[in-house]
Write a structure and sequence with these properties.
three-stranded antiparallel β-sheet; mainly alpha; 286 residues; 8 strands; three-stranded mixed β-sheet; 54% helix; single chain; 8% strand
Length: 286
């Protein structure tokens, strides 16, 4: 199947810029644009995606020269990550990180732990489906949080625009974000320059790793292997290869299905679980 190509007028409509701006970006970003048999400029899906990102970054106030350097750095990073494999299961990494940050915050003078916000198993390049992230931002807006600490930029936001947007809004309310891996505190005067660079690289790494992880999982499925989540209700990890049913929890799972088939609402089922003190795999009642 041949890749779809777009004319100049189609590209202008999709990206939302004038044709002369598009032509200028081509030259400054060194984009090798194709040609039709009649000699007209034609844009690939990849070109459209690149120009859309360019517009988003320009709207954030980033200069075109800096954008070109970012894109060149991303290409080098993708080359370095090509063929890399997933080194550890996500659930183990998440559990270790939660323990680490609880201990770190409890042992740091003048720090008080408000909550741990972790979107387990959520992937993608934007934060719309990240329930815990959105809950954290809401608590910041209510004045319940004045400092966020996270492992890295890639854990905070998966693309440059979202990262800068959230950081700037938080900073305007005097709320800092500490990115441990990159050594950035967003309340520092020079932090945004470094943040722009690191977040762009984080986005490239996320895109590259996502492709590699997907490819690795598909290969594993063909061999009968899969990553079994440690917090799946009704099952125990067992030896990590063959899950073991937990009879007591399995009975609850069957009850939930029967209640749903009988017409009970999700809210009604939740109320029944809470009324009967049925705990989640995390040991909570909600």
């Amino acid at each position: 199947m041949e890749e779809k190509e777009y004319s100049v007028s189609e590209a202008v409509r999709l990206i939302g810029v004038e044709s002369h701006v598009l032509r200028y970006w081509e030259e400054e970003l060194h984009v090798p644009v194709g040609r039709s048999t009649q000699g007209h400029r034609m844009y690939s899906e990849r070109d459209i995606a690149l120009f859309r990102r360019t517009k988003e970054l320009k709207d954030c106030g980033i200069q075109l020269k800096a954008i070109r350097l970012l894109f060149e750095g991303e290409e080098r990073l993708k080359d370095q990550n090509d063929g890399s494999e997933e080194k550890e299961e996500q659930e183990n990494s998440l559990e270790n990180q939660i323990t680490y940050y609880k201990n770190k915050i409890e042992n740091t003078p003048n720090w008080t732990l408000v909550d741990i916000f972790a979107d387990f198993g959520i992937s993608g390049m934007n934060d719309k489906n990240r329930i815990e992230f959105q809950r954290m931002i809401e608590m910041c807006n209510k004045g319940k949080i004045d400092l966020i600490i996270t492992k890295s930029i890639s854990r905070f936001a998966r693309n440059t625009v979202d990262c800068l947007t959230h950081v700037r809004k938080l900073k305007a309310n005097n709320i800092g974000v500490i990115f441990e891996k990159e050594g950035i505190n967003t309340l520092d005067a020079v932090s945004e320059t470094f943040l722009i660079w690191f977040s762009a690289f984080a986005q490239a790494e996320s895109e590259s790793l996502s492709q590699n992880v997907t490819r690795g999982k598909r290969m594993g499925y063909k061999e009968g292997k899969f990553a079994f989540p440690s917090l799946l209700y009704g099952y125990d990890r067992g030896d990590g290869k063959t899950p073991v049913i937990i009879p007591e929890q399995a009975a609850i799972v069957r009850k939930i299905f029967h209640m749903y088939l009988e017409g009970n609402s999700i809210g009604g089922i939740r109320k029944w679980l809470n009324d009967n003190n049925i705990e989640t795999t995390r040991g909570t009642g909600e």
